[in-house]
Design goal:
By secondary structure, the chain is α+β, with helices and mostly antiparallel strands. Helices cover 47% and strands 14% of the residues. The chain is built from seven helices and four strands; from the N terminus they run ααβαβαββααα. Helix 4 links the parallel strand 2 and strand 3. Helix 3 packs across helix 4. The protein starts with a helix and ends with a helix.
Length: 252
């Protein structure tokens, strides 16, 4: 009788312990699920702040930058050679089209080619004046190179509007599988599209084209008259060379 009672009490205690353990495990699982959900929510909030469109992550901005021309000068020859004259003249033409300020000529001093550089500076001013740059728009500055071992050049530069994007190569998030890994969010990584945006900004000649279109150019009156007359006669308004090209492609 006493043995059976002891066995019953032992079984009852074991069942109570099992129920308590099960209850604790259930509570732990629920708490872990809530924590995981909260952690995933935090990750989603951070990931959602990263724009999906690469044009929003790496916008092309228009700002004022420098356009620079370097003229290499030896120590025993003063003045510009024919190639350098052509370069300076082309640089002056670009200033007339897109310059937003005056020109600056940086001339080295205290170098072996300092005397020749002074002669080059006078030639540059002469070429600029002949290309339509007013003398009052050109300023000369003297500078001493930081590294005497390098060849000191005469630098001509002016401000202009430029388009830029970037900087590229930034990796704010780890692309590998970490505890708070974001690859599972199915969103592009931060640096994607930066290089293409930067290259596009460098290739466009007129930065204002990113903001607004250019005005229309005058129509070709001669070409318009030819096309309308051809259409009136019931013929195809395409050029003869274009038809020859089409026929040759069809024949092949």
């Amino acid at each position: 009788m006493n043995g059976n009672l002891l066995k019953a009490r032992a079984v009852s205690r074991t069942g109570a312990v099992l129920r308590s353990a099960t209850l604790l495990a259930t509570v732990a699982l629920l708490a872990g699920g809530c924590s995981l959900t909260a952690r995933n929510t935090d990750i989603d909030d951070v990931t959602a702040s990263v724009p999906v469109d690469y044009r929003q992550r790496h916008p092309i901005a228009i700002r004022e930058g420098d356009q620079t021309l370097e003229v290499f000068v030896g120590s025993r020859r003063g003045g510009l050679n024919p190639t350098q004259r052509s370069e300076v003249a082309g640089f002056a033409g670009a200033w007339n089209q897109s310059g937003t300020g005056g020109m600056v000529i940086d001339v080295p001093v205290g170098t072996p080619n300092a005397r020749a550089a002074a002669d080059v500076e006078r030639d540059i001013r002469s070429v600029l004046a002949s290309a339509g740059v007013p003398p009052r728009a050109v300023v000369t500055r003297r500078y001493k190179p930081s590294d005497p071992a390098q060849l000191a050049t005469v630098k001509v530069h002016y401000p202009k509007m430029v388009a830029q994007a970037g900087p590229c190569g930034l990796w704010p998030n780890d692309l590998g599988l970490t505890y708070d890994s974001k690859p599972f969010s199915n969103r592009p990584y931060w640096n994607l599209g930066c290089a293409s945006q930067r290259n596009l900004a460098a290739m466009v000649a007129e930065p204002a084209d990113f903001v607004q279109p250019r005005s229309e150019t005058p129509v070709s009156t001669a070409r318009r008259t030819t096309v309308l007359e051809t259409y009136r006669l019931g013929k195809a308004p395409s050029s003869q060379n274009h038809n020859v090209t089409i026929n040759s492609n069809i024949t092949q």
